[in-house]
Amino acid sequence: MRPENQRRFSQYIAGYFPEDFHVAVEFSVGHEKTLSIKIATPRGAIASWDTTEAQALDIMAMGGIAELLLARVMHS
After folding, report:
1. How many Å apart are CA 42 and CA 50, to the nearest integer?
2. Per-residue pLDDT, 41
3. Which one in 23, 24, 64, 75 has a CA-CA gap of 20 to 30 Å to 50?
4. Ordered per-residue pLDDT tens for the chain, 76 residues
5. Residue 33 parent element (H or E)
6. What is the pLDDT of residue 65?
7. SS3 40
8. Rounded-to-integer distance, Cα 66 and Cα 62, Å
C-alpha cells in the first residue's frame, strides 16, 4: 500500500474510536500484503484484527461512498 494510502487508512480507522483510544495500524509486505489493526482503550482493554490490503482499500472506498450518499441525502 502506498504511504499516502497507509496514512489515510490509519486516520480512517482511528476516526471510528474516541480520541483517548490508542489505534495502531501495522503494514506488512510478504506473499500477501496485510494490515494488522490494534486498538487499546485507556483502561487497557485491547483488540486486534488482521486484514488484507485489498480489503482495506474496499473499506475506505465504501466509507467514501457512504459519506457522499449522506451528503446528498442531507442536502435534498
Report:
1. 22
2. 95
3. 64
4. 788 888 988 998 998 899 999 999 999 887 788 999 999 999 999 999 999 989 988 988 888 888 888 888 888 6
5. none
6. 84
7. strand
8. 6
Query: Residues near 9 by Cβ (< 8 Å), separated by ≥ 6?
Result: 1, 25, 35, 56, 57, 59, 60
Q: How many residues does the chain have?
A: 76
Tell me which residue has cell 499516502: 4
Rounded distance between C-alpha atoms, residue 40 and residue 52, angstroms = 21
Helix (H, G, I), strand (E, B), or coil: what is residue 55? helix
Distance CA 61, CA 58 (A): 5
Going edge to edge, which strands form the sheet with 46-52? 22-28, 34-40, 46-52
Q: What is the pLDDT of residue 47?
A: 95
Collapsed DSSP state (helix, strand, coil) of residue 43: coil
